[in-house]
Amino acid sequence: xxxxxxxxxxxxxxxxxxxxxxxxxxxxxxxxxxxxxxxxxxxxxxxxxxxxxxxxxxxxxxxxxxxxxxxxxxxxxxxxxxxxxxxxxxxxxxxxxxxxxxxxxxxxxxxxxxxxxxxxxxxxxxxxxxxxxxxxxxxxxxxxxxxxxxxxxxxxxxxxxxxxxxxxxxxxxxxxxxxxxxxxxxxxxxxxxxxxxxxxxxxxxxxxxxxxxxxxxxxxxxxxxxxxxxxxxxxxxxxxxxxxxxxxxxxxxxxxxxxxxxxxxxxxxxxxxxxxxxxxxxxxxxxxxxxxxxxxxxxxxxxxxxxxxxxxxxxxxxxxxxxxxxxxxxxxxxxxxxxxxxxxxxxxxxxxxxxxxxxxxxxxxxxxxxxxxxxxxxxxxxxxxxxxxxxxxxxxxxxxxxxxxxxxxxxxxxxxxxxxxxxxxxxxxxxxxxxxxxxxxx
Length: 442
Ligand SMILES: *Cc1c(COP(=O)(O)O)cnc(C)c1O
Hints:
Layout lengths: L5 H7 L5 H9 L6 H13 L4 H18 L5 E2 L3 E3 L33 H11 L3 E5 L2 H13 L3 E5 L5 E2 L3 E2 H8 L2 E5 L7 H9 L5 E7 L15 H4 L6 E6 L19 H4 L4 H6 L4 E5 L10 E5 L1 H9 L2 H5 L3 H16 L2 H4 L1 H7 L2 H15 L3 E10 L2 E15 L3 H5 L5 E2 L1 E3 L2 E5 L8 H9 L4
Parallel strand pairs: 1-14, 2-12, 4-7, 4-8, 8-9, 9-10
Antiparallel strand pairs: 3-11, 5-6, 10-11, 12-13, 13-16, 15-16
Bound molecules: pyridoxal-5'-phosphate.
């Protein structure tokens, strides 16, 4: 402030009190008072006229409110949407104590891996399994526990990057194992692996087969299969990624017949073990349809070595992941995934049932047209696979307004229309979808 009378001016435009501003904001949003005070303080600190300050405070509060994680209606048609939390899964046990690491028969300490290990054994034929925070952690732990300071043979065609920054050469480096490239980008044969394994300088501890989940290579290509590598004298670890437990999908009980090729041709846990893999690593929240976690399954002696490694303590998930994972695995064993595991419910919905729902939505909102659509599996799984679907098409691009609505609807825009794809949306969200579209006005 100078001595030119601006003291007078600042008295006239005295900023609103922080408290009054926070109370005013409270009428617009339902977030804790302390956050409203923080936004008010920042708005006042930025200066300007009262109107500008109030406007900025509203903006800050709005930004904060939309940044809070919350439920949305997934009308994108992408069943496993990485930005929307991948697989939705049945919630269990929140707020209650559990037997996570408690042995009820002895009253002493138990293992958090035991129940999941038993269920995966029955579902896949693996001798044992342990759970970590995600599949990236599973691969890291396997390499650190079984190949620290030694060589790991990987085909040049499988030295891939998957999703946000999971890159095989970098994970390898962090694990303490040494990457030994074999073959070429497009063709790698059993002989290429054999040469590496037989070369003492390579000191190969294991072979890592990585499923290139999110892309396909066409043309003059060849990759060795697990069964061709199983008797080279070192364990074969197959990172299958997707978490398809069995390529014959017995848990669907024929609900999809014939099985689409994106299921039957996907490398699955049981078939990879049958082919001779010693360990399999996979995600819990892709085709398995469970919470975010990673699973290491296979030979008991190798699983135990991974479980005893010091990194295990840093990578172990909590009951918030293990309890719902157990719930999903029980559903597989009961063979009722089509009604109890949201991902498989989405996959098995008939086009006729989707059409019926679309008709009801259009009738209720009094606008929109019913169009055929293509859903995607998502999460980098089954790239290029389109699942027949049905959408309600609204004229124009209203995706932004839907996103900021209450409840938020995430839609996609194609050819100047906004598509609300019903395959990715649980039927019990249809009512909320109708409300959200009505709230758009016209
Ligand atoms: C998805 C995937 C990963 C990473 O799994 P996250 O659970 O996302 O950590 C690793 N390898 C393969 C083959 C995958 O498909």
